[in-house]
Amino acid sequence: MAEEDSFDTGDMFQEPEGFYEPEPEPTFAEHHMLNGQTVRVRLVGSHPLYGNLLWNAGRTSSHYIEERASTLIEGKDVLEIGAAAGVPSIVTAILGARTTVMTDYPDPDLVENMRYNANLATSQIANPSSLHVEGYKWGNPVEPLFAYLPTGATGFDVLIMADVVYSHREHPNLIKTMRETLKRSKDSVALVIFTPYEPWLLPKTEKFFPLAEENGFRVTKIFEKLMDAVLFENDPGDERLRRTVFGYEIRWAEEELN
After folding, report:
1. Which residues are within 8 A (CB) of 186 and not within 5 positions of it... i.e. 6 or more apart?
2. Alpha carbon distance 214, 223 (integer Å)
3. Where is this region: Disordered (predicted)?
4. Which of 1, 50, 57, 177 is most buried when burial is the number of CB atoms within 10 A of its CB?
């Protein structure tokens, strides 16, 4: 274009002030441990599945773990699947796990936020280098997770799975990950803890457990806890179910250990 044909666009392509919605400021939440410590985490995003809330299952998992820390956690290798803000993982590291690997879907913002929360808890963990963060998609190869285990370890002693069975189509991938990460030992356990936030889908959610049994596991229901209030007040469905946290232990079936 000749110089005389050029023209000044001025601010034609400049968006006016306020054109875009501002990014929401990050919020923080606290989990109060039974021993008096407080775990503070940053929440991320606008979608509850991506960690902008502390869900009842995560809090309940953390208390359940703390009550049994001496036998369940101390000196053990722990993997959390679907960690979101990561409270159970952080509590596990505080309670003396040998290794804790905090994982969730490999979305950069979500992984960065888990890393932020792990760093935020450094002063509360006797061995901060025991807590690791990794993006992981259920059903994918598990070698990146095993890379954090100490030499000679053949799997994780404990899997924490809080509010992950809501995704019904992912049940086979969750089972695959369980089979490939849970150490083959009678003492190894996966803790599956959830609330039916959509109660009418509970029968589909519960199909996870017979599927686990078909794939070499033994399922035991360990508790049913009624919370003081629902997490999402305006949601439809049976209020009592939406206030209830269900807990299950999943261990290797005996024939898988022989």
Report:
1. 251, 252, 254, 257
2. 22
3. 1-25
4. 57
Q: Predicted confidence band at 231 (pLDDT cuts at 50, 70, 90)?
A: confident
Predicted TM-score (pTM) of the model is 0.89
Q: Which residues are annotated as a binding site for S-adenosyl-L-methionine?
A: 55, 82-84, 104, 138, 162
Radius of gyration for the alpha carbons in the chain, expressed in angstroms and rounded: 22
Torsion of Cα atoms, 67 then 68 then 74 then 80, to 10°: -90
The rounded distance, in Å, linking the Cα atoms of 239 and 33 is 27
List, in order, residues 6 or more apart from 45 with CB less than 8 Å away. Answer: 51, 52, 109, 110
Asked if pLDDT for residue 228 goes beyond 90, the answer is yes
CA distance 61 to 56: 8
In this model, does residue 258 exceed pLDDT 90?
no
Q: Which residues are annotated as a binding site?
A: 55, 82-84, 104, 138, 162
Percent above pLDDT 90 for the chain: 81
Please check whether residue 139 is in contact with residue 176, taking contact to mean a CB–CB distance below 8 angstroms. Answer: yes
Q: Is 38 helix (H, G, I), strand (E, B) or coil?
A: strand
